[in-house]
Amino acid sequence: MDREELLGATPEDGGTEKQKSPLLSLEKDLEFYSESIKEVAIEIMVEGISAHPIFIAHQHQVNIGEIILNREELNTDWTIQASTLEEFVEKGIINKDRKESFLKTYKKPESFMCLFVVVPEGANFVYYPYKQGRG
Predict the structure, then answer these.
(1) Does the chain have fewer CB atoms within 10 Å around its N or its C terminus?
(2) Interior CA angle at 66 toward 63 and 70, to 5°?
(3) Contact present, 55 and 81 (Cβ < 8 Å)
């Protein structure tokens, strides 16, 4: 699933602003968080913790990973937690026999953050490009 799919249809189809996706606020927060998330991803890889960092974006409570950006402390809409492919497999979120298939779609972690976005309707993986700039 890509970013456009997750963010849903744009208001071009009738201009119904009332049905604005809460995921639009996620995109805004990811712009703000981008550098911090990239630093954590690099740290996870450099320290040998995992070659496949995964970040969980949520607005409630999840029991995976560690909080790195708390929405209450930062006055944003989304909390981000850092995890790894290994923890996702260990906790059964990614089935062991689906791991290889997941790895085939896993994008370059130096260029994209792998997000597991949790919303009331469910959860899905999204790849979001890091902000270009100082690097």
Answers:
(1) C
(2) 100
(3) yes
Pairing of strands 112-119, 53-58: parallel
Q: What are phi and psi of 11, to 5 degrees?
A: -65, 10
Encode burial over 95-128: b for 16+ CB neighbours within 10 A, e otherwise: eeeeeeebeeebeebeebbbbbbbbeeeeebbbb
pLDDT band at residue 131 under the 50/70/90 scheme: confident
Helix (H, G, I), strand (E, B) or coil at 127: strand
pLDDT per residue over 21-76, tens digit each?
Answer: 777 899 999 999 999 999 999 999 999 999 999 999 999 889 999 999 999 999 99
| Beta strand 79-84 pairing with 66-69 | antiparallel
Structure tokens at 15: 């201009």
In sequence order, what are the residues at sequence separation of 6 or more whose Cβ sits closer than 8 angstroms to the Cβ of residue 105? Answer: none
